[in-house]
Amino acid sequence: MSSELRYTANTQLENLHARYTGTGHADLSKHDWITHQHRDTLASIVGHPTLTSYLAIADGESIGRVRFEMAERMLQPCGPPPKVAN
Amino acid sequence: MHLYNLTLQPPTAITHAVVGNFSGARQQEIIVSHGTRLELLRPDVQAGGKFTTIVSTDVFGSIRSLASFRLTGSTKDYAVVASDSGRIIILDYDPKSSSFIKLHQETYGKSGARRIVPGQFLATDPKGRSVMVAAMEKAKLVYILNRDAAANLTISSPLEAHKNTAIIHHIVGLDVGFENPLFAALEVDYSEADQDATGEALKNTEKMLTYYELDLGLNHVVRKWSEPIDSRANLLVQVPGGQLASSERFDGPSGVLVCCENHIIYRHMDAPAHRVPIPRRNHPLEDPNRGVLIVAAVMHKMKGAFFFLLQSEDGDLFKVTIEHEDEEVKDVRIKYFDTVPVASSLCILKSGFLFVASEFGNHYMYRFQKLGDDDDEPEFNSASFSGFGMANPKMPLPHAYFRTRPLDNLMLSDETESLDPVIDSKVLNLLPNSDSPQIFAACGRGARSTLRTLRHGLEVEESVSSELPGIPNAVWTTKKREDDAYDSYIILSFINGTLVLSIGENIEEVQDTGFLSSAPTLAVQQIGSDGLLQVHPGGIRHVLADKRVNEWRAPGGKTIVCATTNKRQVVVALSSAELVYFELDLDGQLNEYQDLKAMGSTVLALSVGEVPEGRQRTPYLAVGCEDQTVRIISLDPDTTMETISLQALTAPPSAICIAEMLDASINKAQPTMFVNIGLQNGVLLRTVLDPINGQLTDTRTRFLGTRPIRLVRVMVQRNPAILALSSRSWLNYTYQNMMHFTPLIFENLDYAWSFSAELCQEGLIGIAGSVLRIFQVPNLGMKLKQDSIPLSHTPRKFITHPENNYFYLIEGDHRVRGKVASEMRLRELRSNGIEVDEEVVSLPPDAFGYPKAPAGTWASSIRIVDPVEAKTVLEIPLDGNEAAFSIAIVPFSAQNGELHLVVGTAADTTLTPKSCSSGFLRAYKFTDDGAGLEFLHKTETDDVPLALMAFQGRLVAGVGKALRIYDIGKKKLLRKVENKNFPSTIVTLNTQGSRILVGDMQESVFFVAYKPPENRLLIFADDTQPRWTTAVTMLDYNTVAGGDRFGNVFVNRLDSKISEQVDEDPTGAGILHEKGLFMGAPHKTKMLAHFHVGDIITSIHKVSLVAGAREVLLYTCLHGTIGILVPFTSKEDVDFISTLEQHMRTEQGSLVGRDHLSWRGYYTPVKAVVDGDLCETFARLVASKQSNIAGELDRTVGEVLKKLEQLRVTTSGF
């Protein structure tokens, strides 16, 4: 976590959360957390050329398609969020 | 333990390629990224687009994106590199120093390939005014590029064009002429889908094509336009646009081509969209429900026209043209062009070449034969559909089809070898007459897979080989005159005579050359402007241009024993151990220096260097005597024949050769004078001769072979080189300003010389026994020669047989129908009366690939390969949709130790979710001495058996999460014992004694003990780190080395006390009841070494690469990297090399701005491994920095270089 967060405490927390997508907070739901995890992982796979090659060989697809399907999956990697009871 | 990591073969995969005039000359060049390396390639248009590597540098970071741009009015292109360093880099190629210069390095974020840190995508404005760098999500930064008053490139601070909660699929710079720069992005906003539990919002989420305008006046970026686009859009391609200043005419309509699954859409702001279908293969086995995706694209502008080549994931190229009137698009047309391997990047060169950087396998250069303008290939155009194909954008257009056919518009002109991907390897010495082991690598993907034999050495191309009447002992070639372009004579010296051949249309014997034919020859030289010189035991013959001969006879009773010559000087040694010196005077007369020089010991070898340009003579002579010394003697007129320096040797010398060669590690500006001394015991010494005081310094030694060495000065690719002949022939040459020493993969030569004729301008001529050979060395710098055996599917694993030389290899492809299944399907189609296009069906799969089948379909086979003969002995295809995943040869004790082949297969395997209908263990018997297999039986398993190994006369198998021991039965393999406590999936197995090391797919390596009395398999130790194991080998009983999926290598060791304790426990009851530690095994291994290679390790071996040298760890990686880890032998070496590494880290920053220490410690801090690749860049530093660092280390520069060379040579021979 960045040093600014430590010193300015909560005043700018919201702002910082908006800036650093994927940062957790106390009220994070399990679904939000796992979704972030998956998006981070998918982005990391696309970002490492060796990993896309590895998956493409295993799956018998082209690297281009592996990359595309990974990016597509980032939209909703873990299904819709659970229903919230009012 | 401390290790030294050295890359023997850098990665050969190309992840990006961009074309441009990077050196500023008129010629186009290509910069390619190999993932962790940048390389500048210059295609030779005359030689069919063959590449010359100009620079190749390790960037110590992972390159994620590469683009080029050119400032308006400039003639030079710059490269922009986005990597995982969180920095944008602008590189300039400097032709003077032949290196990349980092012009700008702007930090914008954290390092690492993160979701919201830009670096994944790069887009440049076609006029070179700005560049956009984007992340996978949200972040997009725009930099403005400009020139300052001194015409230097400047870069602004970044402007943000972020959009929260938006996943970015692609970005591209639009061509808008000189209006404000525009960038287009494909984005999907997930914020609503994230909130909606019903899933309705997800369905309504649209992919948007958004334009971002950089307002150069206001210096900020605005979202200019955003429109929904096909939800399966994946790629944007720039369409030319903008007006020419001179002619009002529009270059094109501007806008973008949006490549979607099955469609290409033309879009631009305020303009109607056009849509065309991507034609599909008309193959009877093609799955009609499968989408066609464009994976690579290139746009080419010619005078007044432009076209696109788009490549589908089957490798089919489509030519797209846009018909337009000014800015209004009338029609978009698409047609099939040709089929080439699937590319990661396509580049079109103005000289009419298409460079295909393949995503897997070799890279290709094609020449355009025509542009597919006037052929009868069906064309599909947007105007033929209602509303230009956009009447109902949600509905797909009707399928369009084409027939695949062999190349028509393109012609293959050159091929660059690439190992990528290396899936498995073995290191063995199988080939005859080889003293170092070969690397056998299973490479490639699909139908283009190969099994390659890699041999250390330079490839040799032989052009002539002819038998001679006797066995000559030496050969020379010579010109007649100094200014002749080619050689005229070949002189062969036999034991009792000399044969002169003239080189013309035929090579034939000539008599009237003035050479003495009745005696052997010791030296031949073209001397002065038009004289020839022959040294024979009785004297020296100087043949003048008019055939007059001046002869000098050796004094009575003495003979000449050896001689050395250059264009102006001759030195001969007499049998009385005296030297006679001759020099050419200005009249072209050879004058003898009055005094003989007595050496006191028989002279064995002599050498003078070439006369430096514009000089009368070279001032130094090297003399090797029988008393095991080499003396440097002055030839200077003032001090003629005075001994200057002396070097003692360990054995009598057999040859000496003084040569001036460029070695940038010693002197970057001019060639260094080397004295090479070959000894009779096969050792070569290389020392540097100081041109000022004649002292010998910086001696390096190398063992070349078992025979006394002969040395010959030759020319290779217009540079001086030295051929060293022993029981192997070696070439010492300069490549990319660095000195290299590589064996030739060729028959042993007894003697050799340069050879230059019209047909073979840069050749060499050699004698091997009684055979005369003329040959060339075409690829300098390629240190591994590859020979390949084609395979039909992606190789998965292979093993060697303990008794014969065959390899047993399993191969398999997902989403491909097996041969039997396809034939059955075709027969079915035919019997249903459906016409099958036989021509299309019979096209070779290595060029066109296999038709894609749904997930869960496999084609697989077992293959027996003879690696020595380089051929397939037998191929057994698997039926029933089975795919082979593991293989082992097991000597079953139940069958008296008879060897059996066991293959682990699974039927109907799918990868996500991981499942199969059933796994099988197929048992085979060997027949015909291993050339055949007899199927015995197959045993069902509940999961995929990914790892098999022989263990104490039985089979141990990793089946999913379970480790089992099987014994052989009559009808089945019989399960004896099982341990199911592994966390994910077992992928590797190793054993020593009764210990089994189990590599888990996600959780590193487990130590398992087998306790026979209780028949138990007990896990007693594991790793503290989760590791996605890919390859593992045991270094010793307690130590394990391996690689993981994120590109790390590691060494773990178990405490020897625990090891003993476990071994002493007879039943394993102690381990069984021991309490687990950290939710795992009771004991933990300790990490000894850790290093991030940057490429996924696919195999790792403990081998010795040089006969008699210590063992090293050799690893091969997915993208084609081959590297070694060398254990240091002394603490001093560790201290010295690690300190050097530290200095190099500060001195030699990464080219992409990645911090070296954090790159090598990407996932876990680097531990006990020194990066040899970084240390070796010491040789390329400027001299002042070199001496600074060497000073800090209390050594001389020479000593540092020598140490680095020694580390490489003694362990790898490279």
TrEMBL record, chain A:
Q: Which InterPro entries match?
A: SF3b5/RDS3-10 (IPR009846), Splicing_factor_3B_subunit_5 (IPR017089)
Gene Ontology cellular component terms for the protein in this record = precatalytic spliceosome; U2 snRNP
GO BP of this protein: mRNA splicing, via spliceosome
Stretch forming the signal peptide: none
Family, as annotated: Belongs to the SF3B5 family.
Name the UniProt record assigns to this protein: Splicing factor subunit
Identify the species of origin.
Pterulicium gracile
TrEMBL record, chain B:
A Gene Ontology biological process in which this protein takes part is:
RNA splicing
Assigned keywords, A-Z: mRNA processing, mRNA splicing, Nucleus, Spliceosome
* Residues covered by the RSE1/DDB1/CPSF1 first beta-propeller domain: 13-374
Compartments reported by the entry:
Nucleus
The segment(s) forming the RSE1/DDB1/CPSF1 C-terminal domain are 859-1179
Q: What InterPro entries does the record point to? A: Beta-prop_RSE1/DDB1/CPSF1_1st, Beta-prop_RSE1/DDB1/CPSF1_2nd, RSE1/DDB1/CFT1, RSE1/DDB1/CPSF1_C, WD40/YVTN_repeat-like_dom_sf, WD40_repeat_dom_sf
Biological role stated in the UniProt entry = Involved in pre-mRNA splicing and cell cycle control.
State the family named in the UniProt similarity comment for this chain: Belongs to the RSE1 family.
Q: How does it assemble?
A: Associated with the spliceosome.
What's the protein name?
Pre-mRNA-splicing factor RSE1
Species whose genome carries this gene: Pterulicium gracile
